[in-house]
Amino acid sequence: MLPIVNKEKVTALIKEEAKRLGFISCGVSKAEFLEEEAPRLENWLNKNMNGEMSYMENHFDKRLDPTKLVEGSKSVISLLLNYYPEETQGDDVLKISKYAYGQDYHHIIKSKLRELQEFMTDTIGEVGGRAFVDSAPVLDKAWAAKSGLGWIGKNSNLITQRVGSFYFIAELIVDIDLVYDTAVTDHCGTCTACIDACPTQAIVDPYVVDGSKCISYFTIELKNEIPVEVKDKFDDWVFGCDVCQDVCPWNKFSKPHQEPLFNPHPDLLSMTKKDWEEITEDVFRKVFQKSAVKRTKFSGLQRNIEFLK
Q1: 241 annotated as a binding-site residue
Q2: Is residue 26 part of an annotated ligand binding site?
Q3: Residue 158 is labelled as binding a ligand
Q4: CB-based contact 11:178 (threshold 8 Å)
Q5: What are the pLDDT digits (tens) for 172-184?
Q6: What are the residue numbers of the active site?
Q7: pTM here?
Q8: Which CATH class is domain 7-86+97-174?
Q9: Residue range(s) occupied by CATH 3.40.109 in the chain
Q10: What does the H/E/C string look like for 218-287?
Q11: Could you name the active-site residues (predicted)?
């Protein structure tokens, strides 16, 4: 096949292929320094809102400028993949974030991104670039917003009018010029549902989340003991937290995903509170063998469960 050089046609073909691969949205931005994000990130780090997430302080320049991260890069392709489940955990159980119900998203999305890269090479010719899935110094929400895929809400999540916020964000940073999209407007309005509902008051200002106060931070990132001052504030969450998304009015438009690998292990949804409290390492391995919950390890999950008692 002869390489296609018309950037309008190339951009349209990439978006078409992304849709075929199951991504719900695809947008493109020029690879350049994120001028607006720089002071925000610096301020957030200076206030120690990253807690023990010291990796957030690394590669400051690369985090803000993709051309320093991927040599010769010209475009950032942002993609969204839905993970909203058809069925959720019941009431009066210990809860995990919906994104961790199924298999680890890193592997699933990386595989799709590889397919998209191969398609681009086959269609356009040799394309240099790298794929990113929440595992490198890339401000994925900022790029998705810049690419017109949604706006960053008061809970600091990317939100869309069409499907809410229950999706993963990934990027391909590539060395070809494409047609760039424009940002959409903010539709949070006067709503403060997420701020009012946060069990640990982690949303300290509209659009500012103190990561060191978030339940997700305490249950996943924090390796030391959970501070006693947040005792009885976890609302039964043992891995992650979805409260600010569950109360967001835009998530009434969430639709169940179509990715079989995101379906929960059959035993997960039937686990009672007692099952959780008496979980063994064998059950942990069986139910969460391929899940992102593995990240906290059995010992970490046990710590979180004990903290709720």
Answers
A1: yes
A2: no
A3: yes
A4: yes
A5: 999 999 999 999 9
A6: 134
A7: 0.95
A8: alpha beta
A9: 7-86+97-174
A10: HHHHCCCCCCHHHCCCCCCEEECCCHHHHCCHHHHHCCCCCCHHHCCCCCCCCCCHHHHHCCCHHHHHHH
A11: 134
